[in-house]
């Protein structure tokens, strides 16, 4: 498991003006990068540490941006599943990012630890195609059942329909 | 509509939902797969594997889930196996469909409910009827245009969505915000909380069969919306809070307008208290109905009034303050029993707390810039475009190409009237977001519905749905 | 009603006027609020922009009892068959008002998930633009529809293979088709298209061209 302290990347931030005290959100939010095998263990460990709630689970497709910055020892894959955990007792957040390869887009489910991830994992499957094993109901949630493809992937087009203006001249 | 003979996608073959040509009466539709029959002129729609299947086709695991058996139970608690009726036969239960077009489901929510007489056993919410592909659209729009997209997710509190996106972008940009812009944002956001909760009280009252509450709720809301129209130009979906500040400064005389709103709404809330809180019918319909416990709420990732009604005093404005919430005084309203009445009281009192905050903002609003003076982010004032060529070019660049945001990722969360509204933003250094994911509170809160409705009557299902306060725009995005 | 089957002559003319008047002033909308426009539709039904004065405050949940379907909001691909089903369940005579830009043309969401205009699924009578249309805009659209119902020829209903001419707008630029009272020249600065409080008693274009006051 590799840890990196990530948060707002300020290295290239433009010079700021302003006439106020500094307001900074998510100062130094901790980000963990477990492998797929360590993933459930790490999250279970965090749960025991006091992260009672899983605030958010989503997936990202890095097909068109392979050169993102990751800590040493983390091999970048096409998909990343990002889990944001929240601890109410300690008032802090932690983020867990797992790399999921394109050819084998499978990850164990967090449903047994956090039942609230049921809908979130279904959405990640629906829109990006990451399958969560052990999930009680791995079906599409937002799109019709017979939809083909996963729209949020980078190789899926937006589906823009060319707008036809009435009275426009025909093709020349 | 489904009935118990619809085998749906039991063999894994999906049913095609297409807009069909003129129906031919008497013909059986798609006999080969045995999916869907046409009775007369009505063609049944089917969502395939997303449907709720009759008991004989449901696995035991799912039946146990309806009793909450899969939730992590505290140590020492044992499930009583007699509480779970796996063997109950099909003849006694009926699966009905509520929605997506329904007057009481608060938008296009479809509930598949299994009933034993009038008692609700299992519920399965089917969502996606308002899926707009907003996260995909966000990748095509620049950060300046992002607010127009995001604001239409939770359309009852649009300024909250804009705020969370702007906070995420500013966190990535690493800029300091001027004080006045923070206070203006806080004012708009708290007013939006007032209007959203008033709207909730209106629809909740109507779900409790008090149609006069519907009219009263909209009456106050119109006052707030009139102020929004004066400030932002629109009654809804304002596109006012943008990365870098707000679109414009507050209009002259805003203190008087806001004070009038506060002075009018507060005594009327007491009237609504009298109308609803003391009513025996209202109390019987909402007390003890839709109960949630604190462990269930945490396990299901519920936030907002749902979480606070179970007794956990978690409000992001107090726990992890953003904007200037640590400089104003307000109370966090917490319930005890986790039932519908608690949630009603919490939202009613949150309106009072918001008005308290707004009065403090009126006193404490500083002078200054309403947006950050960083040339990379902020376009020049409109008047300067006529005078200066550089200003025109600058304006052009900001509004066509947009501004570049450094590479990185951030998760920012705010407290919307429905719960924790979060934005996970990934930037790859270009003027458009690489991935923008909005954590909609209603999307997660809907998971509580099966638990709240189990064992209750069908009439309580409507009230339970209303007290979750879902906004389908942010559920489906 | 069997009026559509009658031969149109001077005897049935009075009866038709009565029927059109009745249809106009008790037109009941079906609840089809989908997204943000639904909130503005509810505002129109509430006290500040009272829709009850036009006889329309009862939003019927059952399509069997409704005359007008106001499609308020963006129609997603999953919702489209449901929309068609509800429309089919409504009884003739029925009208459709497409409220908002998302329902009229797909709006700002030109992507895979949204049907680009509800007129791809159901025939639309009036389009109300706006995102969302303010309650005044929606009322104007409803009143336009009322004029259309009241002044149209009901023996030539849609669906009988005849093109319905928009009342009194022959030759007009159909960009203003949602607003027949604007006349043939489009927006008239002397007579801007404010919301008419109460529909005019007579055909406004004919009245204006003859110089009669409305």
Description:
The complex is a heterotrimer of chains A (172), B (477) and C (214). Chain A contains two helices and seven strands. Chain A is an alpha/beta fold. The termini of chain A are far apart. Chain B folds into two domains: 1-51, no CATH class; 134-439, Cytochrome-c3 Hydrogenase, chain B (Orthogonal Bundle). In chain B, the strands form four sheets. Chain B has a three-stranded antiparallel beta sheet with strand order 3-4-5. In chain B, strands 8-9-10 form a three-stranded antiparallel beta sheet. In chain B, strand 8 (408-416) and strand 9 (419-427) form a beta hairpin. Chain C has one domain (2-172): Rossmann fold (3-Layer(aba) Sandwich), CATH 3.40.50. Helix content of chain C is 30%, strand content 7%. In chain C, strand 2, helix 3 and strand 3 (95-99) form a beta-alpha-beta unit. In chain C, helix 1 packs antiparallel against helix 5 and helix 2 crosses helix 5. The relative contact order of chain C is 0.13. Chains in contact: A-B, A-C, B-C.
Quick overview:
The complex is a heterotrimer of chains A (172), B (477) and C (214). Chain B has 477 residues and is an alpha+beta fold. Chain B has helices at residues 60-65, 134-138, 143-150, 158-173, 179-207, 211-232, 254-277, 280-286, 294-299, 305-309, 316-319, 340-364, 382-387, 389-400, 441-445, 449-453, 458-468, 472-476, and strands at 38-39, 42-43, 94-98, 110-116, 119-126, 241-242, 245-246, 408-416, 419-427, 435-439.
Features:
heterotrimer; B: 477 residues; alpha+beta; Cytochrome-c3 Hydrogenase, chain B; 2 domains; three-stranded antiparallel β-sheet; 18 helices; 10 strands; 42% helix; disordered N terminus; C: 214 residues; alpha/beta; Rossmann fold; four-stranded parallel β-sheet; 6 helices; 30% helix
Most extensive contact: A-B, 66 and 77 residues
Helix content of chain A: 10-25%
Beta-strand content of chain A: 15-25%
Total number of beta strands of chain A: 7
**Amount of beta strand of chain B:** 5-15%
- What's the gyration radius of chain B in Å? 25 Å
Q: Describe the main β-sheet of chain A briefly.
A: 5 strands, mixed
CATH topology of the largest domain in chain B: Cytochrome-c3 Hydrogenase, chain B
Enumerate how many helices of chain B there are, as a single number: 18
Query: Tell me about the biggest sheet of chain B?
Result: 3 strands, antiparallel
Report how far the terminal alpha carbons of chain A are from each other.
61 Å
Q: Return the structural class of chain A.
A: alpha/beta
Low-confidence stretches of chain A: 1-27
Q: Mean of residue pLDDT of chain A?
A: 77
Give the strand tally of chain B.
10
The spatial strand order of the largest sheet of chain A comes to: 1-2-5-4-3
């Amino acid at each position: 498991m590799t840890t990196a302290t990530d948060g707002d990347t300020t290295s290239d931030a433009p010079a700021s003006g302003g006439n106020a005290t500094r307001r900074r959100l998510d100062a130094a939010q901790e980000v963990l990068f477990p492998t797929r095998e360590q993933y459930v263990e790490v999250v279970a460990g965090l749960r025991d540490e006091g992260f009672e709630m899983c605030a958010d689970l989503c997936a990202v497709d890095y097909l068109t941006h392979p050169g993102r910055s990751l800590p040493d020892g983390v091999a970048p894959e096409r998909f990343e599943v990002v889990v944001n955990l929240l601890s109410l007792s300690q008032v802090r957040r932690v983020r867990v990012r797992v790399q999921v390869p394109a050819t084998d887009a499978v990850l164990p489910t967090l449903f047994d630890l956090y039942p609230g991830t049921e809908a979130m994992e279904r959405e990640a499957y629906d829109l990006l195609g990451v399958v969560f094993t052990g999930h009680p109901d791995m079906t599409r949630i937002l799109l019709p059942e017979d939809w083909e493809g996963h729209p949020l992937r980078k190789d899926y087009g937006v589906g823009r329909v060319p707008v036809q203006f009435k009275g426009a001249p025909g093709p020349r | 509509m489904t009935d118990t003979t619809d085998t749906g996608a039991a063999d894994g073959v999906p049913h095609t939902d297409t807009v069909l040509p003129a129906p031919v009466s008497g013909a059986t539709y798609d006999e080969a797969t045995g999916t869907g029959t046409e009775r007369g002129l009505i063609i049944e729609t089917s969502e395939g594997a997303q449907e709720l299947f009759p008991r004989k086709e449901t696995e035991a695991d799912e039946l146990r889930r309806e009793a909450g058996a899969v939730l992590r139970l505290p140590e020492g608690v044992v499930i009583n196996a007699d509480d779970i009726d796996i063997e109950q036969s099909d003849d006694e239960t009926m699966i009905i469909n509520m929605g997506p077009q329904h007057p009481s489901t608060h938008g296009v929510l479809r509930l598949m409910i299994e009933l034993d007489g009038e008692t609700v056993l299992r519920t399965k919410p089917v969502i996606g009827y308002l899926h707009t592909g907003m996260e995909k659209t966000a990748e095509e729009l620049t950060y300046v245009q992002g607010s127009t997209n995001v604001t239409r997710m939770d359309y009852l509190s649009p300024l909250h969505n804009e705020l969370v996106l702007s906070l995420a972008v500013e966190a990535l940009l690493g800029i300091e915000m001027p004080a006045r812009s923070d206070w203006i944002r806080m004012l708009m956001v708290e007013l939006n909380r007032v209007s959203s909760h008033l709207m909730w009280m209106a629809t909740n009252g109507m779900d409790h069969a008090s149609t006069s509450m519907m009219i009263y709720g909209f009456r106050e809301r119109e006052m707030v919306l009139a102020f929004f129209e004066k400030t932002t130009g629109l009654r809804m979906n304002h596109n006012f809070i943008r990365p870098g500040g707000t679109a414009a400064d507050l209009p002259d005389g805003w203190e008087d307008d806001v004070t009038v709103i506060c002075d009018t709404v507060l005594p009327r809330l007491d009237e609504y208290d009298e109308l609803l809180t003391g009513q025996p019918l209202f109390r019987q319909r909402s007390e003890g109905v839709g109960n949630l416990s604190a462990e269930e709420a945490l396990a299901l990732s519920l936030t907002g009034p749902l979480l606070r009604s179970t007794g956990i005093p978690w409000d992001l404005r107090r726990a992890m303050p953003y904007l200037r919430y640590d400089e104003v005084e307000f109370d966090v309203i917490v319930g005890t029993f986790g039932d519908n009445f608690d949630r009603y009281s919490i939202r009613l009192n949150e309106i009072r707390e918001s008005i308290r905050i707004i009065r403090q903002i009126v006193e404490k609003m500083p002078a200054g810039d309403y947006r950050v003076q960083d040339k990379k982010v902020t376009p020049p004032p409109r008047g300067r475009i006529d005078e200066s060529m550089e200003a025109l070019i600058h304006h052009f660049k900001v509004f066509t190409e947009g501004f570049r945001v450094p590479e990185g990722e951030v998760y920012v969360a705010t407290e919307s009237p429905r719960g924790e509204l979060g934005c996970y933003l990934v930037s790859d250094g270009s003027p458009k977001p690489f991935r923008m994911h909005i954590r909609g509170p209603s999307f997660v809160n809907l998971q509580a519905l099966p638990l709240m409705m189990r064992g209750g009557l069908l009439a309580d299902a409507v009230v339970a749905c209303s007290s979750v306060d879902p906004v389908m725009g942010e559920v489906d995005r | 009603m069997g009026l559509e089957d009658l031969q149109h002559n001077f005897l049935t003319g009075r009866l038709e006027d009565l029927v059109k008047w009745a249809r106009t002033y008790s037109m009941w909308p079906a609840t089809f609020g989908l997204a943000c426009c639904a909130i503005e539709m509810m505002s129109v039904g509430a006290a500040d922009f009272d829709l009850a004065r036009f006889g329309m405050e009862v939003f019927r949940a059952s399509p069997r009892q409704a005359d007008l379907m106001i499609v308020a909001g963006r129609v997603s691909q999953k919702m489209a068959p449901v929309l068609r089903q509800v429309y089919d369940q409504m009884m003739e005579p029925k009208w459709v008002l497409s409220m908002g830009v998302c329902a009229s043309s797909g709006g700002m969401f030109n992507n895979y998930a949204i049907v680009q205009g509800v007129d791809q699924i159901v025939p639309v009578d009036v389009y109300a633009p706006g995102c969302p249309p303010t309650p005044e805009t929606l009322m104007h659209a409803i009143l336009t529809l009322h004029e259309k119902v009241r002044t149209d020829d009901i023996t030539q209903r849609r669906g009988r293979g005849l093109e319905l001419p928009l009342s009194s707008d022959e030759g007009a630029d159909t960009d203003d088709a949602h607003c027949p009272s604007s006349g043939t020249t489009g927006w008239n600065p002397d007579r801007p298209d404010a919301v008419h409080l109460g529909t005019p008693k007579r055909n406004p274009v004919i009245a204006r061209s003859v110089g009669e006051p409305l």
